[in-house]
């Protein structure tokens, strides 16, 4: 009986399991059918959405990468300084960076410039702290000297004979790496490929007729090369981020109310390893009939063609989060100023230049872009875990995003992610910059600001001495006149003159302080930057 009872229980359990499994498969089949139907319905609705065709959601896998492209960032020509800024460097070497490498240039002969690695092979001291002796660059640390080719020509503390010294100096280990240079288009160009530098393409040069009549503006931003180039291809940010700042092309202030959607932003021809050209319709209501062309010619040039003139922007990748920008704007011709003596005219232009760049409007204008892009770089580097070879593809829902999307696709297809994907590039730091100074941003690269600073130092020195002299004379005159019982007009006049020299001294100090104005990024009050 017990055995029969156990058999019946087993049979009942098997029957219940079959019923349960049948019910489970029935529910699973129904769920799959519902999900499939909902997916088909959703896809059918998406086909009829009016904006679906304009929304671009690309990933790196959707862009074809040209693995065979010969574009190598370290084998390109880079503009490092306007030639006009190097006319009076004298015997002072000038330090600069390209792709994170520390380099130094010096004038070894009138009009001839050599570029070295900024590192002495002896004790790895920076050669930029040395000086030019004859035709050689001397290291400040122990006096070693190197000729224009980087060969060591002098070791002052070597005790051996001349033949032994020459034998030592000819060794490669005692030489400094030198790099090829070119002078063209108003700029000094440097190539990091020492063995086989390519030809310098005429397409990336400013015509000499334009370079002679225009003036270069050089600025250094704590922003990555990629973000800076993207910003130049994204004109529609101006009415929003620069609200309240005057647009010199239209004479009116930027304002979101004056913005209008770009209806046409298209790629003219294919995007190749040699760059691309874009054309777009206006993005502001007050320029309804203006069509603009923007051309990117790697590695550095972004040329904007407006009716009547062109703007040349060269972006030099100096560090992972630092870019040097050299801009060429056409200057208006003022005929009556041509009658002024050259020195007076230069002093007036220097003062005008200084007053603009130290003004609150200019400071805010450049800080608005810098502050925004510093935060942009931090977030993009965080999303790629600091990998400089990865391209973060932004959403591109409107025609206004065509410029950014085209550049990002070019980086992915030809540029291997950007200049710091090159294995020879030096990545110094990925940390966020802590502060921005006007001197680091612009002053140290500007001859006009440097001349203003030199004049300010001279005025401060003379005013300080004359202030003390007139004060001393007025005190002595006051004592003499009081002793004689006469009125002390001369004493009071001396005090007024002394006060005048005190004001001049303070003015000179303010010139220095404004050029070294520092803005601490963590302590910036955003309302002071963007609100007007």
Can you describe this structure?
This protein has 532 residues and is of the alpha+beta class. The radius of gyration is 33 Å and the shape is globular. Strands 12-20-19-18-17-16-15 form a 7-stranded antiparallel sheet.
How would you sum up this structure in a few lines?
By secondary structure, the protein is an alpha+beta fold. The chain has helices at 2-46, 162-169, 208-213, 225-232, 238-241, 342-357, 360-383, 402-413, 438-441, 447-484, 489-515, 526-530; strands at 77-82, 94-98, 101-109, 112-117, 131-133, 136-138, 145-146, 152-154, 178-179, 181-184, 187-191, 215-221, 246-247, 252-253, 265-272, 275-280, 292-297, 301-306, 309-319, 322-329, 435-437, 518-520. The chain has 12 helices and 22 strands.
Which bin fits the share of residues in helices? 25-40%
Radius of gyration: 33 Å
* Count of helical stretches: 12
For the report, how would you describe the main beta sheet? 7 strands, antiparallel
Summarize model confidence as the mean pLDDT: 81
Q: Report the count of strand segments.
A: 22
Give the structural class.
alpha+beta
Strand order of the largest sheet: 12-20-19-18-17-16-15
């Amino acid at each position: 009986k017990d055995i029969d009872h156990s058999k019946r229980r087993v049979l009942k359990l098997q029957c219940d399991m079959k019923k349960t499994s049948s019910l489970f498969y029935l529910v699973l089949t129904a769920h799959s059918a519902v999900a499939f139907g909902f997916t088909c319905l959703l896809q059918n609705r998406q086909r009829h959405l009016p904006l679906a065709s304009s929304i671009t959601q690309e990933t790196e896998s959707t862009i074809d990468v040209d693995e065979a492209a010969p574009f190598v960032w370290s084998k390109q020509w880079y503009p490092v300084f306007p030639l006009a800024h190097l006319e009076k460097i004298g015997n002072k070497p000038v330090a600069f960076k390209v792709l994170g490498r520390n380099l130094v240039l010096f004038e070894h002969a009138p009009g001839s410039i050599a570029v070295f690695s900024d590192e002495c092979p002896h004790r790895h001291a920076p050669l930029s702290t040395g000086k030019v002796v004859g035709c050689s660059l001397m290291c400040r640390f122990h006096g070693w000297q190197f000729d224009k080719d980087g060969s060591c020509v002098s070791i002052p503390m070597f005790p051996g004979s001349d033949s032994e010294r020459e034998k030592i100096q000819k060794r490669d280990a005692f030489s400094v790496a030198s790099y090829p240079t070119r002078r063209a288009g108003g700029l000094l160009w440097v190539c990091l490929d020492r063995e086989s530098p390519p030809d310098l393409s005429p397409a990336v040069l400013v015509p000499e007729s334009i370079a002679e009549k225009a003036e270069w503006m050089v600025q250094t931003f704590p922003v990555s090369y990629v973000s800076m180039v993207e910003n130049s291809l994204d004109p529609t940010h101006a009415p929003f981020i620069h609200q309240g700042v005057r647009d010199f092309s239209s004479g009116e202030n930027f304002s979101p109310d004056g913005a209008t959607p770009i209806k046409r932003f298209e790629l003219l021809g294919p995007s190749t390893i040699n760059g691309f050209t874009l054309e777009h319709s206006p993005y502001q209501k007050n320029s309804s009939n203006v069509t603009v062309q923007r051309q990117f010619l790697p590695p550095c040039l972004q040329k904007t063609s407006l009716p009547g003139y062109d703007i040349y922007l060269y972006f030099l990748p100096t560090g992972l989060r630092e870019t040097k920008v050299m801009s060429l704007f056409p200057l208006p011709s003022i005929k009556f100023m041509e009658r002024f003596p050259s020195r007076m005219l230069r002093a007036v232009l220097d003062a005008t230049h200084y007053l603009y760049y130290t003004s609150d409007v200019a400071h805010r204008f450049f800080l608005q872009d810098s502050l925004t892009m510093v935060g942009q770089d931090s977030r993009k580097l965080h999303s790629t875990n600091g990998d400089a070879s990865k391209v973060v593809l932004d959403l591109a829902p409107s025609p206004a995003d065509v410029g950014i999307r085209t550049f990002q696709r070019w980086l992915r297809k030809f540029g291997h992610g950007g200049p710091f994907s090159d294995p020879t590039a030096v990545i110094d730091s990925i940390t966020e910059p802590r502060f921005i100074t006007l001197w680091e941003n612009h002053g140290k690269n500007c001859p006009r600001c440097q001349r203003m600073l030199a004049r300010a130092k001279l005025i401060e020195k003379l005013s300080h001495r004359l202030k003390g002299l007139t004060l001393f004379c007025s005190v002595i005159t006051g004592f003499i006149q009081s002793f004689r019982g006469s009125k002390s007009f001369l004493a009071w006049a001396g005090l007024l003159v002394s006060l005048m020299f005190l004001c001049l001294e303070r003015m000179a100090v303010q010139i220095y302080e404004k050029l070294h104005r520092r803005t601490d990024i963590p302590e910036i009050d955003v309302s002071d930057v963007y609100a007007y």
